[in-house]
Design brief:
Keywords: Signal
Protein name: SLH domain-containing protein
Shape: globular
Pfam families: SLH
Order of helices and strands: HHHHHHH
Organism: Brevibacillus brevis (strain 47 / JCM 6285 / NBRC 100599)
InterPro entries: SLH_dom (IPR001119)
Number of helices: 7
Helix content: 25-40%
Strand content: under 5%
Amino acid sequence: MNIRKNMISLSLLALFTVSFSQPSFAATTPFTDIGQSGAKDKILSLQQQGVIKGVDDSKFAPNETITAAQGIQLMVNAFDLSLAAVTFVKAPQATDYFSKADNDAWYAESLIIAAVNGLELPNDLDPNAEWTREQFIHQLMKVMETKGNLPMIKLVPVEIKDDHDLTVDYQGSIQRALARDIIELDKENKLHPQKPVTREEAAEMIYNALAYLKSHKPLN
């Protein structure tokens, strides 16, 4: 019996049942609650590409925050990460990589995919914890740079007024995100790194990252 093939078949089935916030995969109606969003066009573009889904067929809930599991699922979808190039001795479980994961949860397969595709996620990751802006940006830059095989860039650090709130290990990723126009600071040159990231913010960053890769180097 080919364990890996069976496992991947089940994986694909699972991925069709979850999304950014576990909504219906068949949602195609443009979202009706993003009229005031500055990222409206980007959100709709991602919806049309099948990268993101709403909380139901017509609602995106742009101001809702996202969990680590939802953020990881979004990146797996957006960058087309998979297990296709990986051979396992036995079918993996999410708890092989993350001690706080639930192997029967909707996110389990996404966590496995993220782990084997090089996302720098801690072993004690809490899938249900809210992700902060800096956490999302850091992981997004890692997967974007790996997927796009992007070269190193010479940085001229941008002044961030609230850099005292930044986690030291994330500073490089934040500066690269600014340099590549994946993110921008607010009018006061603040990032608000510890603020929970919203669905709207996450979608806009994903759009910007995919647009950057498209204009600089095709996805592998």
